[in-house]
Automatic annotation (TrEMBL):
<feature type="domain" description="N-acetyltransferase">
    <location>
        <begin position="157"/>
        <end position="308"/>
    </location>
</feature>
<protein>
    <submittedName>
        <fullName>RimJ/RimL family protein N-acetyltransferase</fullName>
    </submittedName>
</protein>
<dbReference type="InterPro" id="IPR000182">
    <property type="entry name" value="GNAT_dom"/>
</dbReference>
<dbReference type="GO" id="GO:0016747">
    <property type="term" value="F:acyltransferase activity, transferring groups other than amino-acyl groups"/>
</dbReference>
<keyword id="KW-0808">Transferase</keyword>
<dbReference type="Pfam" id="PF00583">
    <property type="entry name" value="Acetyltransf_1"/>
</dbReference>
<dbReference type="InterPro" id="IPR016181">
    <property type="entry name" value="Acyl_CoA_acyltransferase"/>
</dbReference>
Amino acid sequence: MTVIRPVRPDEITTFTDLAAATEERNLAARAAVEDLFAKTTSRPEWCFVADDGGQTVASVCLWTRPGHDVPTDLVMLEAGPDETGLALVAFAGEFAAAHGATRQGYALDFPAAPAQHHATVEGRDALLTASGFHLARDGMRFRWTSDREVPADRSGLRWVPITETGRDAFVDLLETVIVDTPDGWISADIAEHGLRKAAETVLADMEEMRHEPHWFEIGYDEAGLPAAVSMPAANSNVSVLGFVGVAQGHRGRGYATAVAARGTGILAATGVDEIRGDCDKGNPAMVRAFLRSGYDNFTNRRDYTRAL
């Protein structure tokens, strides 16, 4: 009989060691979950297993942003689209809802990271869809490393930090940037909350990430008009080009590449070894901006979400 249950603090290897997985994968999973604990983005009591006679046949844990106490997203999900997988994902959703979550997300990377064990994207998609998730974003992930040249911004834009422009100027510009965005997450926010609130949310979410205030900048063109916005930062894992945006009326001039170069230069100056960024597959301007700035498409990511 298979039982879905949380693990005890002394059972972390019960969570990480899948009966059907290789030792290499299980060791990677142990390192990954310990990293989550160290960054306070998960906790032992948020780790759940499908226990079949003392063997772990499926597992998942819950994640939250550093400094937050409500568990939201699924991470380290290892389950197939079968009865056990459905029961495990349902259990995790019920637990999160009982602790204050209203929505739940999951990010499916492919190719899979070493700590992941999903056999196929199709199998994982089937499990998520059957569990009430829908695809919010079909994205590409990009990476710049310090052994590469720091890209130069040759756009002629004049960059002014948020410490001088004020937050209202940022939100005003963000409205013109996201009004027709191909970004699935932001589009859903606009549909649910309206354009102004969605723009405020973009800035508020970025402000929760590690950054120096002067890193957030507006690029003004030769006429003094706000044309682009750059918000490099760092999450709990790596430095990121958190938001790259170009205002309507200023597109087609290479400004997306300028923003990518600007953010990369700011982060590279801090001595980081790696910078990441992502965008929807349906945003060819941003794909070109990353590639022109020396980034490589190292993996792809599908973001799923469901209401709880």
